[in-house]
Amino acid sequence: MPRMAIGQTFLGLLESGPSHGYDLKRTYDERFGRDRPLAYGQVYATLSRLLRNGLVEVDGIEPGGGPERKRYAITDAGITDVRRWLAQPEKPDLYLQNTLYTKVVLALLTGRPATEILDTQRAEHLRLMRELTRRKNDGGLPDHLICDYALFHLEADLRWLELTAARLDQLAKEVRP
Predict the structure, then answer these.
(1) Which of 14, 83, 85, 103 could bridge across to 8 with cysteines, CB 3.0–4.6 Å?
(2) Count H helices, E strands: the chain?
(3) What mean pLDDT is predicted for residues 72-78?
(4) What is the pLDDT of residue 89?
(5) Taking Cα atoms as reference points, which of 135, 110, 134, 107 lies closest to residue 121?
(6) Which CATH number fits domain 6-87: 1.25.60.10, 1.10.10.10, 1.10.760.10, 3.20.20.370?
(7) How far, CA to CA in Å, does 83 sit from each of 18, 58, 79, 134, 172?
(8) pTM above 0.85, yes or no
(9) pLDDT of 97-139, one tens digit each?
């Protein structure tokens, strides 16, 4: 799954008010990156790029136990940028040529059992679906929504796995030389 636009996410978070890089990272990780938290280097590289592009500005500098802590604020250009980003639809991922399809075809071409690949993948999908269902049941509405999104995609993948399994003989005839 592609990583979301971190810069625009920071801009959206900064619309609520100025913030330090550390606080932006913490808020991002809590709301969006629970499974894949940001590295500090990525946070400060992103803030540097936003600063260089005039989308944020340094709102204040405070002394700390280590280096000085900069507080960042969104600029008018940053507000325009995040507004434009929010209004643009995301391109749906079509996955027209995915790794799983490649594995199935290669198994057929090399005389290996493609059904084993499909069965192994089905088991992994079901395992992940159980894990997401537990997370959904234990969490609040944000967890419900993010888990539902993932679960719906996994359900579509399972339908594809079943359909492919039912068509393996036909696929083997079409891909073998």
Answers:
(1) 85
(2) 8, 3
(3) 97
(4) 78
(5) 107
(6) 1.10.10.10
(7) 18, 21, 6, 35, 49
(8) no
(9) 588 888 999 999 888 899 999 999 999 999 999 999 999 999 9
